[in-house]
Design brief:
Number of strands: 12
Strand content: 25-35%
Distance between the termini: 62 Å
Largest sheet: 10 strands, mixed
CATH topology of the largest domain: Pseudouridine synthase
Order of helices and strands: EEHEEHEEEEEEHHHEEH
Helix content: 10-25%
CATH superfamily of the largest domain: Pseudouridine synthase
CATH architecture of the largest domain: 2-Layer Sandwich
Number of domains: 2
Shape: globular
Low-confidence stretches: none
Structural class: alpha+beta
CATH class of the largest domain: Alpha Beta
Length: about 260
Amino acid sequence: MVKSSQIIEGACEFISFKPITKGLKPSYVNDEFVLFDKPSGLLVHPQNRHTPYSLVDEIKYQFGKDANITHRIDQETSGLVLAARNKITERDLKMMFQERQIQKNYLAFVHGEFKKSLHVKAPLLRKKDESAIVRMVVKVHPDGKKSETAITPLKYYPKYNITLVEAKPRTGRQHQIRVHLFQVKHPIVGDPIYGQDEKNIIRFLDRNISTEERKELSGASRLLLHAQELEFTYKDKPYKIISSGSFIDDALKCFM
């Protein structure tokens, strides 16, 4: 057994991160930061050293080793991701996210007719499910952290019985929008976890569910949640950046 402060002789292997590119272009660039419109399915950050590609690859490949992401969105969520081009800006922007000085607005398609605006206040807890089967889910629980989301219906599509909503999180909990919409009985179309039974959640997490079956169970082959807008002030300059993606049109193709 190796003891603390013990001197060990031998070879040392050093592994460095070498970013690659797949040609994803930023939607906004200035001297301090850049924004990418992340497609659904792309990881923001590598899960481990065997992850073949993530958004961090593009950021560091295009803007250098000091460039880095300042926040995260789920792998299946599409839309805006803000990255700093230097360490000072990275520190500043991360602090602004932490202090809720950056407003994030999302679009989502949800099941059913969402008739009126809601301000959901439901504490969220992240821990292993009591069944010990579903791994690390987020749930509404009185012991959870304060969580608030403002939800506004934008358009109902009776042909598909879905509603386009705008969601503005006032706090930044993991899966917050997804859990809050599930809590008010309007789960997001395509959500493979919130709104599904335990057996199918396990199958999805183990990647044992086909695209066709997922679409049948959840309504779409991807999560129909999109980071649409970021609004903040940095160095006394206001920014309101809107996604350049065609989320609504692309999402509706799932039903055609």
